[in-house]
């Protein structure tokens, strides 16, 4: 009998021990999984940008990156990979590990316009990316050189271009700027030669130097030059006047009916990024875009804060791809 009860006690002890080990293992795994999710990020995050340093989007990206560092507790490095209207940067991020350490800060060009401007993209704007959130909206400004050209209004410029079609040139440093100029030509019935640049800063340099006649530039880059008196603003491209340029008419107000063109900035991860990483980045970005200091900075350079999450950015990509397709076709732009 004693032997029987001894064996029974030994059996229960072994069973309890096995159960305890299982519970411990499960708990340890849970803690390990949670710790892994909470650990992100454990190293610097690279924010890839498809435009050069000094461009309007670069100014916003660097402000967002600096504020994002405080939320993430890690350095956020802005990596400028300019070229092909942002496609080089987008392709790089699309092919990067989906671990949260490489993110794309981009305007609507890579995810709405370029699919209509290039015959084939090296990435899929929808399938290859995970939207994180929206950052800002902005319009463009039609600029001229007040010393080199006498135009004071859009009507002045339009009359000159109609008088001598094909004689004058205009610059574009990104997809939106190119479409903005082509849309103006179509709606106003004018002809001028497009000079494409790697970025808006280079186009601005040539406008100030008198080598091109007009330019559609990001408001973020136009405002500092306007304050310095080096350029003149004839109109803004959006439906309404921005807070930072209340005295500059819209293109529609300036005599080009039906003109309405604006853009946005957003952040994307490579597709299939882990859910905890996406949740962390979305939460941090939401805090950043709602920061009064960031909002004030954006407005001071011609942009407007546009807080929004993954669903908001996904909707913008879908609706703007259709919208930009219509605008590009109406402007008669053919894919390269």
TrEMBL record:
Pfam families: TctC. PROSITE patterns: TAT. The keyword Zinc-finger does not apply. Residues 1-37 form the signal peptide. Keywords: Receptor, Signal. Belongs to the UPF0065 (bug) family. This is Tripartite-type tricarboxylate transporter receptor subunit TctC.
């Amino acid at each position: 009998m004693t032997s029987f009860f001894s064996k029974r006690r030994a059996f229960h002890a072994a069973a309890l021990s096995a159960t305890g080990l299982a519970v411990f293992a499960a708990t340890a795994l849970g803690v390990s999984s949670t710790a892994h999710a909470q650990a992100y990020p454990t190293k610097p995050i690279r924010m890839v940008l498809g435009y050069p340093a000094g461009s309007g989007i670069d100014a916003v990206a660097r402000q967002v990156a600096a504020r994002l560092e405080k939320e993430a507790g890690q350095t956020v490095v802005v990596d400028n990979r300019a070229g092909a209207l942002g496609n080089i940067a987008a392709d790089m991020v699309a092919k990067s590990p989906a671990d949260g350490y490489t993110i794309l800060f981009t305007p609507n060009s890579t995810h709405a316009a370029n699919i209509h401007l290039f015959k084939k993209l090296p990435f899929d704007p929808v399938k290859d990316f995970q939207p994180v959130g929206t950052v800002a909206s902005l319009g463009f400004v039609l600029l001229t050189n007040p010393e080199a050209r006498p135009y004071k209004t859009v009507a002045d410029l339009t009359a000159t271009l109609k008088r001598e079609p094909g004689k004058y040139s205009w610059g574009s440093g990104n997809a939106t700027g190119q479409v903005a100029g082509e849309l103006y030509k179509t709606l106003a019935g004018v002809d001028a030669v497009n000079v494409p640049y790697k970025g808006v800063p280079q186009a601005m340099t040539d406008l100030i130097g008198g080598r091109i006649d007009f330019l559609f530039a990001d408001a973020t880059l136009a405002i500092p030059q306007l304050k310095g008196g080096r350029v003149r603003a004839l109109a803004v491209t959006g439906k309404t006047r921005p807070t930072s340029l209340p005295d500059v008419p819209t293109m529609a107000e300036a005599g080009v009916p039906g003109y309405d063109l604006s853009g946005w900035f957003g952040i994307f991860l490579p597709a299939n990024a882990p859910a905890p990483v996406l949740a962390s980045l979305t939460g941090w970005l939401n805090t950043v875009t709602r920061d009064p200091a960031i909002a004030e900075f954006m407005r001071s350079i011609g942009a407007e804060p546009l807080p929004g999450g993954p669903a908001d950015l996904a909707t913008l990509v879908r609706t703007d791809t259709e919208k930009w397709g219509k605008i590009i076709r109406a402007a008669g732009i053919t894919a390269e």
